[in-house]
Design goal:
- The structure is a single chain.
- This protein has about 350 residues and is α/β, with parallel strands linked by helices.
- It has two domains: about 220 residues, Rossmann fold (3-Layer(aba) Sandwich); about 90 residues, DNA polymerase, domain 1.
- The chain contains 15 helices and seven strands.
- Helix 12 packs parallel to helix 13.
- It comes from Cellulomonas pakistanensis.
- Belongs to the methyltransferase superfamily. RsmH family.
Length: about 350
Amino acid sequence: MAERDAASRHLPVLLQRCVDLLAPALAEPGSVMIDATLGMGGHTEGVLEALPHVRVVGIDRDPEALRLASARLARFGDRFTPVHAVYDEIPEVLERLDLPGVQGVLMDLGVSSLQLDEAGRGFAYAQDAPLDMRMDPTRGRTAAEVLNTYDEADLARVLREYGEERFAGRIARRIVQAREKAPLERTSELVDLVRAGIPAAARQTGGNPAKRTFQALRIEVNDELAVLARAVPAAVEALVVGGRIVVESYQSLEDRLVKRAFAAGAEISAPPGLPVVPETHAPFLRLLTRGAEEADAAELARNPRSQSVRLRAAERLRPTPEHLRPGRGDAGSTGGPGGRRPDRTRAPRAPRSPNGPRRTA
């Protein structure tokens, strides 16, 4: 029942294209792929069916997704290994499983079908629900906590940076005014505030006016961009030579991070003007797509959720040069691409005090 439930609720985006891109790296018996964002297991199922000699390690931070995917993939036995983790923890997952490297990595980013379809999770602006939005509902700060504790400047920053919302300041002001009367608790309250904060003319196009605000809050609650900035370099480091990585993004902020990470590996890192490029500065990645691929008409007709997908893929050509390995340089202290991951036992980031620096929780 759970297997049928997961399969009926999740249609994987660009499945055949993902399999085709990964297959050359997974040709040898005993090959291992990491599905870094397992969800309900649709992509993993496609790989396991198409490549019967491959093992997949499926990572997800959502316990319910792991439960549903595990039931769906139970018929593959020990060829599938579920792991409860955030996908920037790939190095720790491989160490725990005693895997020195893998031949493939797949990332299907953003919110999953499971999270969108379950109204009680608070991800969907079209359904009234508690303001939660945590991908792992067992830990972390909820959207309600963000809305009710961040000061106006921080709320505007989140909406502007993560939602690319033109009216971030107006919406943040409405939120602060509303919570002075009573804490915000429901998604419908937030939708009404966003609608009231956006000029009537701007509400006529672009779909639901709350879409960008919900995206921004989801990214903030789950620290999505910081996790992605650490996860892509970690995934590349997990690949053996000849291994391949495929990433599907669904909004420009994600795609920009992936593009930059791949480009950094596919470019010569030596100073310009050298007569001969040292091997240590030669590219260590080969781009497999020309720019970002989008869904064609057939995919859109089959799966409307593929409308915003941007797919990029790369192949590892050689080990990463020492000077470009994750953790080198200033990135390690900032949590930027390749940097150190924060201690996950720490409290989530607290809002700035109106009169001073950011408070600690």
